[in-house]
Amino acid sequence: HRVVAIATNILCLHIFGDVPAPIIVGLLKDRLAPHCTQPANSDDDNIAATSSCREESSGLRNTMRIVELWLLWVIIAFAVIAYLTRGGHSSAGADLKAMKDREVENPMVSAVEMGNELVADAA
Question: Which of 37, 64, 98, 100 has its CA 20 to 30 A from that of 71?
Fold first, then answer.
């Protein structure tokens, strides 16, 4: 089930994040700085800001501020979720501590034994 959950997570990240983000930021830029466009006859190797684009620099800055604030919100939400899910729900830390407490010479043997014990306990 874990593999399916990770795959679904990655798919959702792409569908709701990577795909629409450039479109949304472009629409936001077009709304805040509508005259700042690349001239039709310019190529990608020679891009220069037009005078109308320089006049709308505050619109471009506001566009980037909105994007930065959105990323800040995501970081804060991630930190809150990480904090809330730490509350002892993971048994990996306890298993590692139990393995260290045993002080066995070969950690691979200990991991296999511990895995066998966990399977036996679950059954």
Answer: 37
